[in-house]
Amino acid sequence: MALDKYKSKRDFKKTNEPAGARALAGRPSRSSKKHSTNQLIFVVQKHNASHLHYDFRLEIDGVLKSWAVPKGVSRRISDKRLAIMTEDHPLEYAFFEGKIPEGEYGAGTVKIWDKGTYKSEKSMKSALRSGQIEIVLHGKKLKDRYALIRTKMGADSKNWLMIKMKQ
Ligand code: MN
């Protein structure tokens, strides 16, 4: 299951993060086919954990694909930012803000830094597989075209670069 890793890292008796139950309980899946032209969501969460970073998440195929961006998403054209792929998160996580208690995975505060929808001209599933994603974000702060490029060949590389493109 896509969310196994997410769940195994967390104790939902202790953290207020969403357990993602709805995604498993037969919630109609929002397949990327149906929604490729509208209303796929993205979120950037400022995560003040042991190291401050920003989590960039994109709705792909019913989950939030997630990257930790240590320096945050740049708004300057051609800026490249390291983005480390982390475990898939449930869609409900896009609404999560709060404090993850001391001692728990990701302990610290989470705040939504920007949120909105995005568009891709290509299938996000195959873009993800090939390690070359190009999207246009429609957020409050981010309203731009970005590329996410996997730095090494091979699907197991976790390191990507997030680059702000020219319009
Ligand atoms: Mn994080």
Structure description:
The chain has 167 residues and is mostly beta strands. The protein has one domain (4-25, 39-165). Helix content is 12%, strand content 41%. It has helices at 4-8, 21-24, 32-35, 124-130, and strands at 40-48, 52-60, 63-69, 80-89, 98-100, 108-119, 132-138, 145-150, 159-164. Strands 1-2-3-4-9-8-7-6 form an 8-stranded antiparallel beta barrel. A hairpin with a 7-residue loop joins strand 5 (98-100) and strand 6 (108-119). The chain is globular. The N and C termini lie far apart (37 Å). Mean pLDDT is 89; it is low at 23-29 and 31-36. Manganese (II) ion (MN) is lined by residues 47, 49, 53, 55, 68, 106. Manganese (II) ion (MN) binds at residues 47, 49, 53, 55, 68, 106.
Secondary-structure blueprint of this entry?
Blueprint: H1 4-8, H2 21-24, H3 32-35, E1 40-48, E2 52-60, E3 63-69, E4 80-89, E5 98-100, E6 108-119, H4 124-130, E7 132-138, E8 145-150, E9 159-164
Antiparallel strand pairs: 1-2, 1-6, 2-3, 3-4, 4-9, 5-6, 6-7, 7-8, 8-9
Manganese (II) ion binds at residues 47, 49, 53, 55, 68, 106.
Give the DSSP E fraction (strand runs of 2 or more residues). 35-45%
Taken from the alpha-carbon principal axes, the silhouette is globular
- The mean pLDDT is 89
Runs with pLDDT <50, length 5+? 23-29, 31-36
Give the helix/strand class. mainly beta
Question: How many structural domains in the coordinates?
Answer: 1
Q: For the CA atoms, what is the radius of gyration?
A: 15 Å
Q: How are the strands of the biggest sheet laid out side by side? A: 1-2-3-4-9-8-7-6
What binds here, in terms of ligands, is: manganese (II) ion
